[in-house]
Design brief:
Layout lengths: L2 H10 L7 E2 L35 H7 L3 E6 L10 E3 L5 E5 L2 E6 L7 H5 L10 E2 L10 E4 L6 H9 L1 H9 L3 H25 L6 E5 L12 H22 L3 E6 L7 H5 L5 E4 L8 H7 L5 E7 H9 L3 H13 L3 E4 L7 H14 L4 H9 L4 H13 L9
Parallel strand pairs: 1-12, 2-7, 7-8, 8-9, 9-10, 10-11, 11-12
Antiparallel strand pairs: 2-6, 3-4, 4-5
Helix pairs in contact: 4-5, 4-6, 6-7, 10-11, 10-12, 11-13, 12-14
Length: 388
Amino acid sequence: MSLRMKLAELLSGKWNGPPLIDIGTTSLTGIQAGALPHLREDGAVAHPIYETLPLAPKECIRLGSDFLRTGLLFDPPVITGEAFTDAFGVQWQRDEGLLSPISHPLENAELKDILHYPNPEWRNQLQLVEPEFREAGILIADAPCPGLIDLSFMLRNPWRFMEDIAEKNWKMAAALLDWSLETIIEAYNYMLSSLPEQPDVIVYSDDLGYQDGMFFSPSDFRNLVRPYMHSLLTRLRQLTPAAICFHSCGAIRPILKEIAELGIELINLDTKAKGMDVLEVRRELPASIILHGSNDLCALGEAVANKNKARIALLITELAQSAPVIAGPLDNMSSAEQVLAAIRGAAFIRNFSSDDFEKLRNIGPVRNIIEEAIEKTLLAEFPEIAAL
């Protein structure tokens, strides 16, 4: 069975075998350039802030990924005096290797300034998948720009935007969301219309909470933010038949059901945040929605390397009982050790049959099948990081 057929069965709720695996393709599962510096070239990056690598199809396959990256490419940040200004006019500064926003162009703006703020021109190059690889993996297109809330935060300053909503400054908040909505749709339209074929999955990414709570009250999300998200996702559906993977970081459990009702097919969540236990989240979501990268693939690979059988049993059973699921790292990877762990975790998963996963899902950890998979994985040869 082809990988696309497996995805189709997964989306229809009929696939009960080992999960598909996504490593190294998007800002959700990608590899930061600093993790594998020998792959960093002077050319474009896959994400302008995270500086993830735009891995070629053969590199994704060698990592053990069933998915291949397509989508926009970005010029690497040009740091002048430790500062970098992005396409939206936001200024960033590098701090301990990470870029953080230090200046927001609409922080002190009046309503008229927002209404007349110029939209960026989309002229980015695209990463295309060569014809010989198009049947070798599932095409996933990374988000071409930040989401509604992320973009509003970047333009206005997170605290100012949250104050606009808390103080019922609806006109200002609505103007920022209107600008963001139209900018995002134009970015997706540019990307999707420039590709020679439609991807199988597209990512929409928008952080809605901290590690221990939400940015907004559930009622503010419901009354102000959700209608914009509904409009945005409805318009994305008009642009592409691709399945939509919705990502959000943070402790957003109070609004999970409302996000699910937006009609998404996949959801990528921070299951380390407060109240976001993966099995509890699974029970709250409709069975039709696929959990993407919400189980810790890197932790699984590390546990296998250390022969930590108790940890392995917990993680692999959790993965099976989270179905329908696509396995992947919890976040983009910042070290070679994380990359190696993800490769090993993927290999371990592939040592289980459909019957094995059925037992793990219905019975729980079964010692003999787990130990057999561990043995096979430890005997396997893995690609040298330097050879990727």
